[in-house]
Design goal:
The complex is a heterodimer.
Chain A: H1 3-17, H2 20-39, H3 51-55, H4 57-69, H5 71-79, H6 81-86, H7 92-112, H8 115-124, H9 129-156, H10 160-176, H11 180-187, H12 192-200, H13 203-211, H14 217-241
Helix pairs in contact in A: 1-7, 2-4, 2-7, 4-9, 4-10, 5-9, 7-9, 7-14, 9-10, 9-13, 9-14, 13-14
Chain B: E1 2-11, E2 14-24, E3 29-33, H1 40-47, E4 55-60, E5 63-64, H2 69-75, E6 76-79, H3 91-101, H4 106-119, H5 135-147, E7 153-157, H6 165-178, E8 183-187, H7 191-197, E9 200-205, E10 208-213, H8 215-220, H9 227-235, H10 243-250
The chains are: A mainly alpha, B alpha/beta.
C-alpha cells in the first residue's frame, strides 16, 4: 500500500474512533428522511423515483459536508501534527489526497446507508434504477466537490470554525449560482453568455442533469476537475502557510 | 554528515535565521542553545525539511533537502517542539502508522514498533489513547516515533521539556546510548543537559552563531567556569545590562 493509502486508512479509522463518523451518518440519515418524506412529498407525488430525495442533497451538504471537512487541516495545524506529518518521508500530495479520500469515503458510506429509501421506492413501484444509480453517483461527486472546497478552507486557518464558515459561504455561492433566483436576476440584463457561464459553474446545474439520469461526461468532468483544482489549491495553501 | 550552508530564513520583516553555517559529523551530539526566539526551532524545521530557507542550502549525507527531500526525510528522526502526535489514536496504532509510513510491513514492522516501545518504556500505555497520557508519556511517544526507524540523524526539539527529573534522566540515557555512529541535534534550555549528553554545543542568538565548541571549552571561557555564565555573556544583548541585576533583586 502506498503512502496515500496508509494516510487514507488512518484518517478513515480515526473518524470511527471518535463519535464523529456516527454522528455524521445518523444526522445525515435523519435529515434525509425529513427532507424526502416531509418536505419533498415523497408519497404525495405518487411517482416511483427518488427526485425529492436527491433534490435536497445540495442544501443538506451545504452544512453537513463543511462540518466534516473543517478539521482536515485546521486540526493538524492546531495540534502541531502538521509538522510531524510533513517531515515524514511522504509527498504533500499523498497527505492532501489521502485525507480528502477518507472524508469522501465517509460521505459515501453515509450516502449508501440511505439504501432503505431505495428499497422503499422499489417496493412501492417500479422505478428506473439506472436513474437512481446516476443520482447516487452525482450526489457523491457533488459531496466530493463540497469536501474539496472544505479541504482548501481548512488549510487556510488553524481554527476549524472559521474553516466551516468559509466553506459554507463558498459552497453556497457554487450552489446558488445555478438557482432560478440568481440566474433570473442576471438574465434580466446580462448577456446570455454570462448567464450560461454562471450556471455552468454551479453544482446545481451539473447535479440536476446527472440525477435525472443524463450521464453526460461533461457533468462528471466538471466535478472531477473541480475537485482536482481545489485539492491543488489545498496543497499550495499548505505550502505557503506552513510557517504560521 | 549534515552540512548547513549559509541558510537565512525571513518571515516578512523578521529574520529568524541569519546566514547560519555549520557542519555536524557522525558521532557528534550537538546541543543547540539560545534564548527563546533565537532561531533554534526554525533551524531545526529547515533541516528536517518542514520549512524552506529563504536562501542557503542544507545537505544531509550528500542529499540536498531542496532537491531530494524524500531521501533526507528518510534519514532523519524528528521530535518537533511539544512532541505533537495524533491524540485520538492509541500508542500502538500511532507507532504502527509511523512504521507503515516509514515503509515497514509485517514482522519487520512489528519488530520495529516493539523495539521503540521498549526503548522508551511505553509498554504499560500501548493500548491507551495518547491524549489521555501524562506529559512524560506523550513526550516518550514522540521520541518513540523519532527513533523507530533507527535513523542516522536524530533531531530533538526540547526533548526533556516538562519532564520530571527521573524522566529527564531516562531520556538522556537514551540519547547517550544512541549516539555512537549517529548525528544527534538537541535544542534545550537546560544547560546542565548539554554538559551531561552533548559532545559539542552551539549557542545562537538572533539567528547567528555566537559560540561553538565542546561544553567544557565553553565553560572555560567564563571566569566562573560555568556554562550558564558564558551563555548569558554571549546572549545578554537582548536584555539590557541593568535589567539583569534588577530582576535578580526582585527574585
Amino acid at each position: 500500500m502506498g503512502t496515500t493509502g496508509i494516510i487514507f486508512r488512518r484518517e478513515l479509522a480515526n473518524y470511527f474512533v471518535t463519535p464523529l463518523a456516527y454522528i455524521f451518518i445518523i444526522i445525515f440519515l435523519v435529515m434525509n428522511g425529513i427532507a424526502t418524506f416531509d418536505l419533498g412529498g415523497f408519497y404525495i407525488r405518487g411517482q416511483a423515483d427518488l427526485q425529492p430525495f436527491f433534490s435536497f442533497h445540495p442544501w443538506l451538504y451545504l452544512f453537513m459536508i463543511p462540518a466534516l471537512a473543517m478539521g482536515l487541516w485546521a486540526d493538524e495545524r492546531k495540534t502541531g501534527t502538521i509538522e510531524l506529518l510533513l517531515t515524514l518521508p511522504i509527498r504533500l500530495a499523498d497527505a492532501v489526497v489521502g485525507k480528502f479520500l477518507a472524508a469522501w469515503v465517509l460521505s459515501g458510506i453515509a450516502l449508501l446507508l440511505t439504501f432503505p429509501i431505495w428499497l422503499t421506492v422499489n417496493y412501492l413501484g417500479s422505478p428506473d434504477n439506472g436513474v437512481i444509480f446516476a443520482g447516487y453517483l452525482g450526489s457523491w461527486l457533488m459531496a466530493g466537490a463540497f469536501l474539496a472546497v472544505g479541504s482548501g478552507m481548512s488549510a487556510i486557518t488553524r481554527n476549524p470554525v472559521i474553516a466551516f464558515i468559509l466553506t459554507v459561504a463558498i459552497c453556497f455561492a457554487f450552489v446558488a449560482s445555478g438557482s432560478d433566483i440568481v440566474l433570473g436576476a442576471f438574465s434580466a440584463w446580462a448577456p446570455q453568455i454570462l448567464v450560461d457561464a454562471i450556471a455552468a459553474l454551479s453544482f446545481l446545474t451539473h447535479f440536476d442533469s446527472i440525477s435525472k439520469g443524463v450521464l453526460d461526461l461533461r457533468d462528471i468532468l466538471f466535478f472531477v476537475i473541480f475537485i482536482f483544482s481545489w485539492l491543488l489549491a489545498t496543497a499550495i495553501i499548505i505550502e505557503l502557510k506552513k510557517a504560521n | 554528515m549534515i552540512d548547513i550552508d549559509h541558510i537565512t530564513k525571513k518571515f516578512e520583516q523578521f529574520t529568524a535565521v541569519d546566514d547560519l553555517s555549520f557542519q555536524v559529523a557522525e558521532g557528534e551530539v550537538l546541543g543547540f542553545l539560545g534564548p527563546n526566539g533565537a532561531g533554534k526551532s526554525t533551524t531545526m524545521k529547515i533541516i528536517t525539511g518542514f520549512l524552506a530557507p529563504t536562501s542557503g542550502s542544507v545537505r544531509v549525507d550528500g542529499h540536498d533537502i531542496a532537491t531530494d527531500p524524500m531521501a533526507v526525510k528518510s534519514l532523519i528522526g524528528y521530535l518537533p517542539e511539544g512532541a505533537p502526535s495524533y491524540g485520538d489514536m492509541t500508542t500502538l496504532d500511532f507507532l504502527n502508522f509511523i512504521a507503515e509510513i516509514r515503509g515497514y510491513r509485517g514482522a519487520e514492522k512489528q519488530r520495529r514498533v516493539e523495539l521503540a516501545i521498549e526503548g522508551v518504556a511505553l509498554d504499560e500505555v500501548r493500548y491507551k489513547t495518547i491524549e489521555t497520557l501524562s506529559k512524560g508519556f506523550k513526550r516518550r511517544v514522540g521520541l518513540a516515533q523519532a527513533i523507530l526507524h533507527d535513523p542516522k540523524v536524530l533531531i530533538l526539539d526540547e526533548p526533556t521539556d516538562g519532564l520530571d527529573p527521573n524522566q529527564k534522566h531516562h531520556v538522556r540515557e537514551l540519547i547517550r546510548n544512541l549516539a555512537t555512529d549517529k548525528i544527534v541535534i538537541i535544542s534545550t534550555h537546560i544547560l546542565e543537559e548539554v554538559s551531561a549528553v552533548c559532545s559539542r554545543a552551539i549557542i545562537i542568538n538572533k539567528g547567528r552563531i555566537v559560540a561553538d565548541g565542546t561544553p567544557s571549552e565553553l565553560e572555560s571561557r567564563s571566569p566562573k567556569n560555568q556554562l550558564e555564565d558564558y551563555f548569558r555573556t554571549v546572549t545578554h544583548e537582548s536584555v539590557s545590562h541593568e535589567a539583569v541585576p534588577q530582576a535578580k533583586e526582585q527574585v
